[in-house]
């Protein structure tokens, strides 16, 4: 009866799906969504550890709240950057954002 | 196994399948609007998993912040960059996708074998339960006080930075005649407004 492993494996699967989306997406907005998926996978890990290994102090929940805060800030700034790039390049294709490519 | 554990296992299975299927939909569907709504479903399922983990406060925060703010923000972003464009096909794109899928599958196999091989020392302490929110508050204002304040400063910085980044660029050569005394961020007038005024002048 070890539910901890189920949660950890779920979080690992979600993280891998997020990495796949992050690398293969062409649309910038979908890349941002994949980053959110990965952050959520990490949060799920933290919460599982908090519940099963540290149920009295629940520092994992505090960490998860911090991660949620940072993720909200990251989404706002990321979308602002996407909008700014879209105005300059008139596209949302990742392959054409090659201003910094050597 | 008593009834409560059975219910827990069943709901864990349902929420997990729902979460993984929606996450695959987010990544694989071609319509970006469907992806955004499926992302909301992923966040809601994760909130349900948090409730299974005895964390009601974080589950509520997850719903509020992710479904209520981040997902809506992403939908607004999709609306603002709403351009139907067919991406130029990249030569041999399937090699990259296959390699990424192989790397992700390998990473998943590595992580899950590590999870299953590690002997976890489960704690037998009394869980915080209903008092969890009080414990979180005490952490915030005692040993996590500095990160808490830094997080508020970071949110302010993100707020200002997002506004600065997302506004239209100011063109400095067209100086307005009547200088406004009010502190405003100058930005380029919209093309829509300019086009409309041109039409009026032509008429």
Task: Give a short overview.
The complex is a heterodimer of chains A (102) and B (203). Chain A is mainly alpha-helical and 102 residues long. Chain A has helices spanning 3-24, 28-53, 59-89.
| Percent range of helical residues of chain B | 55-70%
In what range is the share of β-strand residues of chain B? under 5%
Global geometry of chain B: extended
The description of the largest β-sheet of chain A is: none
Characterise this structure.
The complex is a heterodimer of chains A (102) and B (203). Helix content of chain A is 77%, strand content 0%. Chain A is built from 3 helices and no strands. The relative contact order of chain A is 0.14. Classes of the chains: A mainly alpha (102), B mainly alpha (203). The interface between A and B is large, with 76 and 85 residues.
Features:
heterodimer; A: 102 residues; mainly alpha; 77% helix; B: 203 residues; Four Helix Bundle (Hemerythrin (Met), subunit A); NAD (chain B); cell membrane (chain B); oxidoreductase activity (chain B); quinone (chain B)
Secondary structure elements and pairings:
The complex is a heterodimer of chains A (102) and B (203).
Chain A lengths: L2 H22 L3 H26 L5 H31 L13
Chain B lengths: L2 H26 L3 H21 L3 H25 L12 H25 L14 H10 L3 H22 L24 H12 L1
